[in-house]
Amino acid sequence: MAEYHTQKMRALRQRRQQAGLCQSCGERPPVPRLLHCQPCLNEGRARSILRRAQMRQLVLDGYGSRCACCGESEPDFLNLDHVNGQSGDRESEYATYRQAIKEGFPPTFRLLCWNCNCGREKNKDRRCPHETKRSFNRHA
Known about the structure:
Blueprint: H1 2-18, H2 38-62, E1 78-82, H3 93-102, E2 109-113, H4 114-122, H5 129-139
């Protein structure tokens, strides 16, 4: 059934394109060199922004909405971090979010605030300055 629907929609989009109309609504001509009219492009962008915000919030909630190192809870400061420092092929932030959601928020990721994440980058041992300081205080 889904295959039939997909084929039907593909044929509809193709007919609209051949008629010189927007593939989404079929009512207006598309923006030059694109397949969709400006209102449909704007609507698609708005949906994408909303979907990304929802995905980000889901990831924040899935990892406790706090920096795993210092406890910072301001959402604008929080980033998803690869625990082992391996980001693969420098995938996009949202590709990483999708992976974390799909895998059920695995322990290979964690939330870090901007400061802790940058601090890890500066240290040779890839540890946040907070971790280094705590470790030093325990042994002192």
